[in-house]
């Protein structure tokens, strides 16, 4: 099962590229909604990543998120407008049981760890496992190692072994490749790599598949409290992949 | 308890400083041992005990209190264990050769682990009681004393007490290189890294500790709770001594300090204060802290956890709650609402409030607009009033974290007075810079519905200019005493008993500096305590201090605390108070929410 889902993820960009040509002309004005969830251990910088992405801002010593925070951000990808609907979840253990509520219908997930804490990568791995088991089978998962500003060497210097880094890039990269995840290293503080996370996710999600069935959803389900989100994703990727075969 | 000088050959060429330190610490131990009444005939200790069933309070104010209550013997019983622990730790110390930093770390670890319990108790008490002594010592000894010698001494000595002396004698070591445990949250608390054995730590006026009944640290207001686990062990030991006798410890008075205990099933809460607050006021504050914990866990979860595992580390589940507990601890010191069991409303015209109330009509449990600990309006489901204690928790949550400011949040919250067994779900969003909209629903899947409702609410509020109105009202400091025009009146707090709300003017003129404000608040607190004393409650209390005259007046419908100048005559004071009451009556509808609208 998990093997299948992984395959379909890796195939999807090719398919997306092929089909987008005939669909993009009619849909390029309407924003495509992408529901995205951030997961990861407490204090790895999930909220800071979102804050950098949405407000291009950074706050030192941010208080921990309570429950979950909801933010939206529109951005352009080639000729499409994408509206990210982001659930920034709290990393504390007591909120763990609420997580399914947020990733249940998500098309994308960013699992964040802290490159200076090897333990946070373990937590990230367990989140990835949980997502692959319980979330939407076509979910695009990105692994992001945050806080690289803490381990970046001064100009011209080699990264020294005692720089505080506990998770080597290669190790995390290898894991990401094995589990079929996008991989990034980011710094919410300096802004490095943050946009890439979201752009790459947007590229990987088969956007046009989500655009076409929107009217149908309104017919089926009537007014939904989550415009375009809950039902579409549960059904459509499956249907559309059936079509493409 | 005995103290033996370390007999190490390393110490034979003893430096004068070292000698000073050692002899000094020796003298500290004998002179400050609070557990032995024979050594301390002049110090007064009283232990209030009560049988929980009969609620009889027995006061033992004599110096023999300790021997009769036999807290001393309970401590003695720990000697065996602690000696054992000490020797093992000491052995480990000797076996390794380490750098100076390692030594320090070890020393700290050792005094942090539940090693010499008895000595820790000394430290614990001494830390609070003998502040002055410590300070003196700190200044008299050289900041750059012979470090290596000190550490050799540490190596041999098993007295954790003197390790403090060592650390204190090295001024620059006040912040030792201890790996700081940030396992639970990346957020750095203001006082989170304070060294629990430093003078700055013990000098704080009010400490709160929360521990589990098995002695595991859960929370401390100052410092890092994992580093005071030995104190927690002592607290647990003292409490369980009384629990074993089917008794419960309520309060210890020691000099200027009060140690107040609140036992709530698996949790022990302790306040250590020299703020002159009464036992019942401190216990009330501990209750608020307990409610704060319930609000993130629910009592069901709390009981279940400890039923399954007695020694569970609750910090795993409370992670991220510390800022709220800190915020609560701080606001309890300067918000009269906690003491009065009531909340404050923003003064605004009744029309505006009604208009806002009408717009907020959605099918929900509670909907409210709040700003800086003040309520703008509250809508509720019929028959579901909201207790002021729950409202305080809501206010504290919204104000306790900056994360609510720029986003829409959705969080589970338990309101203990509403139902301490289950979670409600709160939608939190700031609709202007200062005004926060809070919608509470029992349904965890309602976020998007409420988010849409918020958009409608904001649209409607903007359409009728109400949004600007409430933003302006929320920005203002409140009304000033000059608006009322009562001769001689400096400040007041008026609590309406029917609405459970209070009103109070802005702190102006002489009270706008924190010290004066705190002094006035202290007088209010004193008056409040006198009037609500369980033994003899008062209706009217008139008190003249060197700087103020404070009137306390309680009737069936209101409580009034008013501050006048020190020289005002009683007739003038009575007349002014009557004028004030008249003004409040006239303004009642703007100052209070008289009829909270329902859905």
Low-confidence stretches of chain A: 1-26, 212-245
How many domains of chain B? 4
Q: What does the oligomeric state look like here?
A: heterodimer
Based on secondary structure, the structural category of chain A is alpha/beta
Work out the count of structural domains of chain A: 1
CATH superfamily of chain A: P-loop containing nucleotide triphosphate hydrolases
Q: What order do the strands of the largest sheet of chain B run in, or round the barrel if closed? A: 11-12-13-9-10-8-15-14-18-17-16
Name the chain pair with the biggest interface and residue counts per chain.
Answer: A-B, 30 and 36 residues
The top-level CATH class of the largest domain in chain B is: Alpha Beta
**What is the molecular shape of chain A?**
globular
User: What is the CATH topology classification name of the largest domain in chain B?
Assistant: Beta-Lactamase
Our count of helices of chain A gives 9
Can you describe this structure?
The complex is a heterodimer of chains A (245) and B (599). With 245 residues, chain A is an alpha/beta fold. In chain B, 45% of the residues lie in helices and 18% in strands. Chain B has 24 helices and 18 strands. In chain B, the strands form 2 sheets. Chain B has an 11-stranded mixed β-sheet. In chain B, strands 2-1-5-6-7-3-4 form a 7-stranded antiparallel β-sheet. In chain B, helix 12 packs antiparallel against helix 15 and helix 15 packs across helix 18. The longest helix of chain B is centred in the C-terminal third of the chain and has 22 residues. The termini of chain B are far apart. The chains are: A alpha/beta (245), B alpha+beta (599). At the A-B interface, helix 2 and strand 2 of A face helix 14, strand 11 and helix 20 of B. Strand 2 of chain A pairs antiparallel with strand 11 of chain B.
């Amino acid at each position: 099962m998990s093997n299948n889902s992984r395959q379909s993820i890796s195939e999807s960009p090719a398919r997306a590229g092929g089909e987008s040509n005939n669909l993009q002309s009619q849909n390029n004005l309407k924003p495509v909604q992408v529901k995205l969830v951030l997961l990861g251990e407490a204090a790895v910088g999930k909220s800071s990543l979102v804050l950098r992405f949405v407000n291009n801002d950074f706050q030192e010593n941010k208080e921990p998120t309570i429950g979950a925070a909801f933010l939206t951000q529109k951005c352009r990808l080639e000729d499409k407008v994408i509206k990210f609907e982001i659930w920034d979840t709290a990393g504390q253990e007591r909120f763990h049981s609420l997580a399914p509520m947020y990733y249940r219908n998500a098309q994308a997930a960013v699992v964040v760890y802290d490159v200076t804490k090897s333990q946070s990568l373990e937590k990230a791995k367990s989140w990835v496992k949980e997502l692959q088991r319980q979330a939407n089978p076509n979910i695009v998962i990105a692994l992001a190692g945050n806080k690289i500003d803490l381990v970046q060497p001064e100009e011209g210097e080699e990264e020294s072994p005692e720089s505080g880094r506990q998770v080597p890039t290669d190790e995390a990269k290898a894991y990401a490749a094995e589990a079929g995840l996008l991989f990034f290293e980011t710094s919410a503080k300096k802004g490095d790599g943050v946009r890439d996370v979201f752009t790459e996710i947007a590229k990987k999600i088969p956007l046009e598949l989500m655009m076409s069935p929107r009217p149908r959803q309104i017919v089926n389900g009537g007014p939904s409290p989550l415009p375009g989100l809950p039902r579409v994703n549960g059904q459509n990727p499956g249907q559309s992949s059936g079509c493409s075969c | 308890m005995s103290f033996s000088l370390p007999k190490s050959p390393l110490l034979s060429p003893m430096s004068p400083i070292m000698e000073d330190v050692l002899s000094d610490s020796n003298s500290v131990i004998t002179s400050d041992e609070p557990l032995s009444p024979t050594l301390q005939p002049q110090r007064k200790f009283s232990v209030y005990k009560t049988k929980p069933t009969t609620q009889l309070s027995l006061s033992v104010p004599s110096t023999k209190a300790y021997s009769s209550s036999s807290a001393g013997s309970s401590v003695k019983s720990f000697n065996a264990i602690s000696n054992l622990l000490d020797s093992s730790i000491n052995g480990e110390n000797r076996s390794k050769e380490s750098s100076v930093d390692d030594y320090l770390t070890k020393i700290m670890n050792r005094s942090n682990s539940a090693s010499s319990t008895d000595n820790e108790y000394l430290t614990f008490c001494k830390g609070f009681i003998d502040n002055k002594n410590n300070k003196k010592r700190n200044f008299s000894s050289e900041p750059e004393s012979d470090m290596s010698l000190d550490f050799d001494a540490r190596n041999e000595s098993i007295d954790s007490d003197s390790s403090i002396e060592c650390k204190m004698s090295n001024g620059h070591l006040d912040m030792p290189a201890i790996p700081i445990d940030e396992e639970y949250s990346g957020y750095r608390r203001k006082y989170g890294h304070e060294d629990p054995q430093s003078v700055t730590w013990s000098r704080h006026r009010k400490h709160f500790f929360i521990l589990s009944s098995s002695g595991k640290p859960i929370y401390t207001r100052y410092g890092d709770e994992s580093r005071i686990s030995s104190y927690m062990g002592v607290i647990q030991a003292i409490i369980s001594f009384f629990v074993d006798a089917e008794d419960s410890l309520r309060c210890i008075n020691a000099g200027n300090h009060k140690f107040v205990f609140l036992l709530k099933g698996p949790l022990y809460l302790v306040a250590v204060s020299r703020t002159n607050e009464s036992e019942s006021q401190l216990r009330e504050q501990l209750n608020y802290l307990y409610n704060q914990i319930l609000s993130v866990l629910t009592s069901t979860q709390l009981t279940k956890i400890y039923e399954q595992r007695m020694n569970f580390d609750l910090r795993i589940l409370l992670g991220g709650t510390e800022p709220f507990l800190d915020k609560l601890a701080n606001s309890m010191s300067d918000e009269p609402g906690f003491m009065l069991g009531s909340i404050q409303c923003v003064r605004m015209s009744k029309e505006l409030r009604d208009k806002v109330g009408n717009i907020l009509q959605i099918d929900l449990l509670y909907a409210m607009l709040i700003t800086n600990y003040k309520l703008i309006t509250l809508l509720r489901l019929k028959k579901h009033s909201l207790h002021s204690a729950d409202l305080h928790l809501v206010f504290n949550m919204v104000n306790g974290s900056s994360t609510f400011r720029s986003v829409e949040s959705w969080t589970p919250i338990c309101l203990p007075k509403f139902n301490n067994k289950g979670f409600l779900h709160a939608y939190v969003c700031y609709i202007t810079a200062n005004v926060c909209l809070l919608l509470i629903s029992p349904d965890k899947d309602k976020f998007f519905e409420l988010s849409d409702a918020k958009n409608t609410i904001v649209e409607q509020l903007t359409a009728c200019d109400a949004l600007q109105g409430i933003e302006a009202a929320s920005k203002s400091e409140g009304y000033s005493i000059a608006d009322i025009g009562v001769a001689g009146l400096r400040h007041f707090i008026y609590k309406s008993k029917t609405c459970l709300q209070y009103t109070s003017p802005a702190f102006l003129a002489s009270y706008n500096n924190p010290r004066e404000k705190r002094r006035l608040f202290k007088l209010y607190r004193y008056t409040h305590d006198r009037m609500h004393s369980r033994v003899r409650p008062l209706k009217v209390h008139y008190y003249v201090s060197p700087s103020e005259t404070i009137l306390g007046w309680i009737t069936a419908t209101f409580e009034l605390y008013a501050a006048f100048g020190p020289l005002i005559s009683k007739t003038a004071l009575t007349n002014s108070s009557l004028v004030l009451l008249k003004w409040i009556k006239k303004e009642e509808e703007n100052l209070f929410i008289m009829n909270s609208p329902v859905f």
